[in-house]
Amino acid sequence: MPVNIPAILVPFQLIWNPRLILPHVVQDIRQLDFLALRKAGYRGAVFDKDNCLTIPYEDRLVPELQVCSAKYCHTSTYVDASFQSAWRECRDAFGDGNVLIVSNSAGTKHDPGEVQAESVSYHLSVPVLRHNSPKPAYSCIYSIRAYFASLRDPIKDDELVVVGDRIFTDVVMANRMRRRFWPVTAGVEEKVPTQPRETLAVWTDGVWRKENMAMRWMEKRLVDMVMRWTDESDRWSLSQEAFIKPAPPPPSTESVSPLSRLWTSLWRRK
What we know:
Number of domains: 1
């Protein structure tokens, strides 16, 4: 993986703007109520790929996001298994063209022939952004804006939900987009939201496969520290309770230590 200079420089920006790393926290996207977000005025979504929707370096959606998400509904009761998967629920709520994958691998200059971008788009059934700069670079943000501005019904920054598993890339990028509204185009009526709204940064802190755990631990400590310093009313315009469901079971990870395997084996023999 190439060195991500924009992410490396993030800690320096935190000196004068620590709120840049504050996210809404969910375990994974099964906790998100996409219909509630749509009703709140959000019309599009940006997703990271690795450890958010897929196993790292794979292109298929993880099985947990394909199965019925209704087991983990607001009432925490089991209902008919024909209920939509979390990913299908998201795409139905926003519309396939309004859901975009932004990866620091697929669709970048390090994806020769855009082969991986085509594969990800095929397996996840949504477009993959082509861009030359890694998240959270401002040039990557400009590419995202250009994509959503090109839609038949353009989507603005404050109508976007940005979901990812990394603080220094996904969350920082989302918070850089906050409160940066586009000018009204001549002849187009501005839609005034009924309540304050801004780009929504969502951090999925569960991982499908353990990766860069030391960096993840450091990111979490920084987030906890900034949250202790700030008042909740100053963080976001939308309460988490408005769009977050009860947590699903923790995602299983493929990384199991040899010591754990040995202990399990000995325990089963007893």
